[in-house]
Amino acid sequence: MSIQDVVDPPTTDDDGAVCCSSLLAAPLRVEAADELAAAFSALADPVRLRLLSLVAEAGEVCSCDLQEPLGKSQPTVSHHTKILSEAGLITGEKRGRWVWWSIVPDRLGQLRAVLGS
């Protein structure tokens, strides 16, 4: 299920693209509420918010380059990137020993749209 399926029916924007209905427009289904809660929970941690902003600023960043700015060990960085990845907020590509992370811009847009009124 995608965030686009959060509430029924989906709406379209001015360009005719399907987007999410506002959280306030209709009651959430249980599955949709679970998915949204996981995504917002992933964002509810200060380390993950910093990590997300570092990845967004860089466009693409190696896990090895996140330890110093976050002040966290590699296992901790891996833990936080895993949570953000499972929430669909970042995506990783393994290159050799390291994973390179990038933002999933559509996912962030969907979460913003759900919060709209």
Produce the secondary structure layout:
Blueprint: E1 11-12, E2 18-19, H1 30-43, H2 46-58, E3 61-62, H3 67-70, H4 74-86, E4 90-95, E5 98-103, H5 105-115
Antiparallel strand pairs: 1-2, 3-5, 4-5
Give descriptors for this structure.
Arc Repressor Mutant, subunit A; 5 strands; three-stranded antiparallel β-sheet; alpha+beta; elongated; disordered N terminus; 117 residues
Our Rg estimate from Cα atoms comes to 16 Å
CATH topology assignment: Arc Repressor Mutant, subunit A
Q: Tell me the span between the first and last alpha carbons.
A: 22 Å
Number of strands: 5
Largest sheet: 3 strands, antiparallel
Kindly state the mean pLDDT as a whole number? 82
* Spatial arrangement of strands, main beta sheet: 3-5-4
Structural class: alpha+beta
Number of domains: 1
Helical residues, percent: 40-55%
User: Strand-and-helix sequence, N→C?
Assistant: EEHHEHHEEH
What is the CATH superfamily label? Winged helix-like DNA-binding domain superfamily/Winged helix DNA-binding domain
Strand content: 15-25%
What's the helix count?
A: 5
Q: pLDDT below 50 for ≥5 consecutive residues: which ranges?
A: 1-19
Shape: elongated
The second-level CATH architecture is: Orthogonal Bundle
